[in-house]
Design brief:
Largest sheet: none
Number of strands: 0
Structural class: mainly alpha
Strand content: under 5%
Radius of gyration: 14 Å
Distance between the termini: 20 Å
Number of helices: 2
Length: 79
C-alpha cells in the first residue's frame, strides 16, 4: 500500500473504534484505476447482493473531496 493511507486510517480509528471491517469498502487506489474500480464494484455487489444496474442502499457515504477522491492525507511525517 505504498500510495495509500488506508493502513494509518485502519490503525488510527477503524480498529480502535471496533468498526466492523466487513462494513469497510475500500477503493484500492494503489492499483491501476480500472482494476481498482472493478474490485470495488465486485465488493459492493457481493456485500449488498445486487447485480449489474442495481443500486446498493447505503446508510452512510463518506464522499471524497479531492481530484483523486481522497478526503484527507494522513501520512506520518518523515523524521
Amino acid at each position: 500500500m505504498s500510495k495509500s493511507n488506508f493502513r494509518l486510517a485502519e490503525q488510527s480509528f477503524l480498529l480502535p473504534a471496533r468498526f466492523p471491517m466487513r462494513n469497510v469498502h475500500r477503493i484500492q487506489a494503489e492499483l491501476r484505476p480500472e482494476l481498482a474500480a472493478e474490485r470495488y464494484v465486485a465488493d459492493l455487489r457481493a456485500f449488498f447482493g445486487v447485480g449489474p444496474g442495481d443500486i446498493p442502499a447505503f446508510n452512510v457515504i463518506h464522499q471524497g473531496m479531492g481530484p483523486d477522491a481522497h478526503t484527507a492525507s494522513c501520512f506520518q511525517a518523515s523524521r
